[in-house]
Write a structure and sequence with these properties.
- Helix content is 84%, strand content 0%.
- It is mainly α and 120 residues long.
- The protein has a domain of 65 residues.
- It is rod-shaped, with a radius of gyration of 45 Å.
- Keywords: Membrane, Transmembrane, Transmembrane helix.
């Protein structure tokens, strides 16, 4: 019985080779690391993986801080623009009020002078 099984496996493995297939069953050849080996990671040492993890963490932290700094700068620019606009509006309002007061005072002074000249 053993010889019959081995003959059958020899025939099936020869048939597989002719078809270009792997004669070994999948359970014997497939390992958990084959996917990693395909991308070249299975043979890495543990410190290589630590370096990759540290690199990824550093990149994520740097990107996070760059985004935060960018948002803070945008916020600062928005606040500065808002303050400048408010200051300009207030200055224009003060100038308009001063001009109106000067014009009203000038009209009153001219009216008083005209009344005094006409009456006297």
């Amino acid at each position: 019985m053993i010889s019959r099984i081995s003959q059958r496996s020899i025939r099936s493995s020869a048939k597989c080779r002719r078809l270009g297939l792997n004669p070994m069953p999948l359970a014997r050849t497939h390992h958990a690391t084959e996917g990693w080996r395909a991308i070249g990671v299975a043979d890495w040492a543990w410190w290589d993986l630590v370096v990759v993890v540290v690199f990824v963490v550093v990149v994520v932290v740097v990107v996070f801080f760059v985004v935060v700094v960018f948002l803070v700068l945008v916020l600062v620019v928005v606040v500065v623009v808002f303050v400048v606009v408010v200051v300009v509006v207030l200055v224009v309002a003060v100038v308009v009020v001063v001009v109106v007061v000067v014009v009203v005072v000038a009209v009153v002074v001219v009216a008083v002078v005209v009344v005094v000249v006409v009456v006297v």
